[in-house]
UniProtKB/TrEMBL annotation:
Gene3D superfamilies from the UniProt entry: P-loop containing nucleotide triphosphate hydrolases (3.40.50.300)
Protein name: DNA repair protein RAD51 homolog 2
Organism of derivation: Rhinopomastus cyanomelas (Common scimitarbill)
Keyword hit for Mitochondrion: no
Primary site of residence: nucleus
Function (record text): Involved in the homologous recombination repair (HRR) pathway of double-stranded DNA breaks arising during DNA replication or induced by DNA-damaging agents. May promote the assembly of presynaptic RAD51 nucleoprotein filaments. Binds single-stranded DNA and double-stranded DNA and has DNA-dependent ATPase activity. Part of the RAD51 paralog protein complex BCDX2 which acts in the BRCA1-BRCA2-dependent HR pathway. Upon DNA damage, BCDX2 acts downstream of BRCA2 recruitment and upstream of RAD51 recruitment.
Keyword Nucleotide-binding recorded: yes
Any one GO molecular-function label of the UniProt entry: ATP-dependent DNA damage sensor activity
Length: 253
């Protein structure tokens, strides 16, 4: 949760703008600085800086939850707890579909249809809740240049011909799917750490990365000394950010 933007930590807009001037935009950026450094960039006293540190720390600390509370929250409206895949057998195994508020990893040998499945999930997430969708936007991070807009439209038309019966509805659906092509580990990490405000402004209900394995394989040869540690560090940092986004906004990732 250290990736949370300072604007959402309760700091004033004026202070956030001042901190942005020094490239301090997240709770992590803020908390990594010493009190002396914060006094310099904020122009505030030691006492006021300590209050800011407590405020930011509380904003990014995970709130305590009981198991009963978590179960109750999902039981109030079970339809909001999952994104159904519309594949009855798979939804049965997953107890309803792809879970909201957590990370889901899809693995298989090459050529088994992982990208096709992700494209279909993108269509499903844009559907209204009455059709089992999430009625929201999608962020699709493509690391293999495998995403096909033509295939997206074809799948939408074939799977839901009654709903997508006009070019207007297809246009609305495609405008709600935001595609980013990130071809390196660094660019993927930079992208996901900057998604928080975009999730809010665009009402994003699903995040897809297709795929993490692709950029990791290209950049890290685990036979070379030191690469295994760097690879593990990248995966841990990425998973931490994605887990925070999934839990903070109750969306499937």
């Amino acid at each position: 949760m250290a990736a949370k933007k300072l604007r959402r930590a309760g700091l004033s807009q004026e202070l956030c703008e001042r901190l942005t001037h020094y490239q301090i935009t997240t709770c992590q950026d803020f908390l990594c600085l010493s009190s002396l450094e914060l006094m310099k960039v904020t122009g505030q006293s030691y006492y006021d800086v300590q209050k800011l540190l407590r405020k930011v720390s509380q904003a990014c600390a995970p709130k305590m939850q009981t198991v009963y509370g978590m179960k109750l929250a999902k039981s109030v409206n079970p339809s909001l707890a999952f994104l159904p895949t519309t594949l009855s057998g798979l939804d049965m195994v997953l107890h309803g579909g792809v879970p909201c508020g957590s990370l889901t990893e899809i693995t298989s040998p090459p050529g088994c249809g992982k990208t096709q499945f992700c494209i279909m999930l993108s269509v499903l997430a844009t559907l209204p809740a009455s059709m089992g969708g999430l009625d929201g936007a999608v962020i699709y991070i493509d690391t293999e240049s495998a995403f096909s807009a033509e295939r997206l439209i074809e799948m939408a038309r074939n799977r839901f011909p009654t709903y997508f019966d006009s070019d207007e509805k297809l246009l609305c659906m495609t405008q709600n799917i935001h595609l980013y092509r990130e071809l390196t580990c660094g660019s993927v990490l930079k992208r996901i750490t900057s998604l928080e405000e975009e999730i809010i402004s665009k009402k994003v209900k699903l995040i897809i990365i297709d795929s993490v394995a692709s950029v990791v394989r290209k950049e890290f040869d685990t036979k070379l000394q030191g690469n295994l540690a760097e690879r593990s560090n990248f995966l841990a940092r990425g998973a931490s950010v994605l887990k925070y986004l999934a839990e903070e906004f109750s969306i499937p990732v």
